[in-house]
Amino acid sequence: MKKIVQLLVIMLCFGVQAMAQCSLCTKTAQQLGEGPAKGLNNGILMLAATPLVIIGIMVFRHWRSNREE
Q1: Keyword set for this entry (predicted)?
Q2: Does a structural domain hold residue 25?
């Protein structure tokens, strides 16, 4: 468990900026300019994070309830 927490902290500290735009959003962002395009990309990443966090919590609870002590 301690190793998993350490890995998550390292991943959060040294995360690479992700580009989360589909082709349609990329074309729209190119027309908006650099400032609004970064805001659009950040919004897409925030919307994607919520379901991933929920799935992660569910997997962790399942793992914790099924591990052998």
Answers
A1: Membrane, Signal, Transmembrane, Transmembrane helix
A2: no
Q: Does residue 27 form part of some domain?
A: no
Please count the structural domains in the chain. 1
pLDDT at 55: 92
Angstrom distance (rounded) from CA 53 to CA 34: 29
pTM of the entire structure? 0.51
Structural domain boundaries enclosing 60: 35-69
